[in-house]
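the two lines:
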Amino acid sequence: MKDNNLNGRHLLAKIFRWTCIAVTGFAVLILGILIYQVTVMGLPWLDMQFLDSFPSRFPERAGIKSAFFGTLWLVSLTALFAIPTGVLAAIYLEEYAKPGKVTRFIELNIANLAGVPSIVYGILGLALFVRFFHLERSVVAGALTMSLLILPVIIIASKEAIKAVPQSLRQAAYAVGATPWQVIRHHVLPSALPGVLTGVILALSRAIGETAPLIMIGALTYIAFIPEGPMDEFTALPIQIFNWTARPQLQFHELASAGIIVLLGVLLVMNSVAVYIRIRGGRSKM
Amino acid sequence: METNEQKSTILDIQNVSISYGSELAVRNVSMPIFEKTITAIIGPSGCGKSTLLRSFNRMNDFIGNVEQSGNIILSGQDLYESGVDPVEVRLRIGMVFQKPNPFPKSIFRNVAWGPTINGLSGNIEERVVTALKQAALWDEVKDRLHDSALNLSGGQQQRLCIARALAMKPEVILMDEPCSALDPVSTSRIEDLLFELKREYTIVIVTHNMQQAARVSEYTAFLENGVLVEFGDTDQVFTRPENQRTEEYVTGRFG
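prediction for all of em together
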């Protein structure tokens, strides 16, 4: 038998495997502790009264209604603005733009924008949407700001998904006399859809959790009503949570935990919907 | 053995040169493609045969920095004249690729897609059935037309791709090494199919398999380093080549 240090290599493989398991376990553990703490503190407060009340300076009467609906408004409008813009930009960059210095420059800048701190987007939103366009502290101003924030993420994820569509598929479609639009509409986009959706989910999840830009554009106010139109003032879940944690009383901290549970719930529902769409999209392609 | 005088030229390649950046891939190639015949383009890897083939239906348009000169004339129409729509060129000249590339859709929709998006007249279903029969695939798939094309074997997928091209009823079909990813049985089925198809279609096939070229084609073009070394009757090219290089290549002394 040749000695090619097989035992040593197997040992290395085992060590690597267990390192991976340990690291994954650690991440899950931290998340578990976090959820446990939040649940223990917040669950007793999580009832219909909490969901169906507006903020109040009395903890037992305070609720999350305006923040919850504010977040729904904000995310819906953000999705409306950011998804078409982002996906179309990705299609342009991958399918139409001629590779060259200008395209590379644009792509580099998009990648850089993804790393800009969110507060900077808040400042931009304040100057541009709130002041310059006189949208004031409306849901629209907030959604536009959030759209700018998540646009790079959507573009980059969509670009990667489109890039992963095999060139042979495009050629096959062109060879039967398809126009570029038909190739994109019938082949490139359906094949890229799962990847695009993953990017969209990640981006919208980020939008739901962002606080800083909203504070910057002035959404940190006492709102005791549900926005009825895009021009109404609003508050959102992370702002309400931030607001409660900033108060000295313990009850408000517990309210914040209850708010976090609601926020996590909204995220979970959104992600489940997206996963469902992905599975259905994957099947209908067949 | 047919005589070549009666054949009319459907595709006329005149002084075509193609370069990628500074690299000249095809150098001043002129040759005719005769109607309802099979023409084989042979030559060592990297000799420019695929590049030349893709220029016939403007598939090189998708590759950046390609420069092309010369004329390619399909029944009197220069395919590279300004104002010619490349989409229309590809409607008239179909293509089958090296690796089977069915759409990730059902067998039926693979064939039906081309006629549908182009709004071709007539019954789409009939077209699909005819194309599948012509491609000798009908008996194998008639009971599962709505299954995914990706579940077919490699050879079946390639015949599906041929059916997809046939459904457009093109004037010329280009095949870029269509059997190179297939096993011998699938290969011989496709070769049999080519014999059937040339009654109605003009076929240009790029192959690096010389036996295949000798078996299926009536005309053979031998390309080396982008230069058309020899073009002629397949019989003549393989048995009495005029050029020394051709002889060395077809007898397997290089390449």
